[in-house]
Amino acid sequence: MDNALLDTLPRALAVGTPLLLACLGAILNERAGVVNLGLEGVMAVGALAAFAVAASAPDANLWLAVGAALLAGAALAGLHALATVTLRANQFVSGLALALIGTGAAGLLGKRFEGLPLFNKVPDWTVGGIALSPFTLAALGLAALLAFWLAATRTGLTLRSVGENPAAADVLGVNVGLVRVLAVLGGGALAGLAGAFLALSYRSSWADNMTAGLGWIAVALVIFVGWRPLRAVAGALFFGLLYALQFRLQGVSAVPSEVWSAMPFVLVLVVLAVAGVRGQAGDAPAALGRPYVRGER
């Protein structure tokens, strides 16, 4: 039993890492009142940008590859900010369009990188006898940092006030539009970082659809954890463990492999239904999904 746990835990942490990073980005967006359903596309673009830089030369700087993923994620999210904050378009429609644009563009532009080797990957670190990616440790640190920033700093309070009551924040001199744009850019950068992990550490290669629906699970995970960064750690680990178990059980169970593959997405529906019954949606920022227009109630 102990050996099975030691074998499963690293994989659960690995799968949970991109979920946690993307979820933290979504929390940052939504605490400011902006929904971004395009995390899947932003992750895909971030993964492509990171791999393209890392595979450009045998001695390519991996830090530059990570930076490229951050910039690519922020740039794509910038389109969402332009549409929803500046032009006040429907946030849900814009997010869905962003997911399609991101995954489509990554799939098309990434054709030239399929089958190419990654000369060097981000090496794992051994912590407590478990090999962990630096991305995993960074994700855990970012969760703690975001939780502290939102709860205990003036700027974090400003961002939360924009998500709860943008009119009141505006009266107090807060630039609501700027805060929301910066939150969307920051959330996009974190989703791009999640993609960089897939390309540089987890898979160390490029393949079309390498995000495999993780972005959509991250969107649901935000609701499941009640928009709280520290809860996101446990939620990401839970879904990561479910992913890891599906691979272990496929070979030893009579249940068809397609059933195990569908389990994470089925569980997303279950936890969202449970959250709705228990009133978890009541934890959502009051102005979530609503564009702000000065003078309108």
TrEMBL record:
Keyword Cell membrane present in the record's keywords: the answer is yes
Its Gene Ontology cellular component terms are: plasma membrane
Query: What is the protein's major site of localization?
Result: membrane
The listed locations are: Cell membrane
Q: Which InterPro entries does this chain map to?
A: ABC_transp_permease (IPR001851)
Q: Pfam families from the xrefs?
A: BPD_transp_2 (PF02653)
GO molecular function terms listed in the Swiss-Prot or TrEMBL record? transmembrane transporter activity
Any stretches that span the bilayer, and where are they? 12-28, 35-56, 62-85, 92-110, 130-151, 172-200, 206-225, 230-247, 259-277
Q: What is this protein called?
A: ABC transporter permease
Q: Origin organism of this chain?
A: Deinococcus arboris
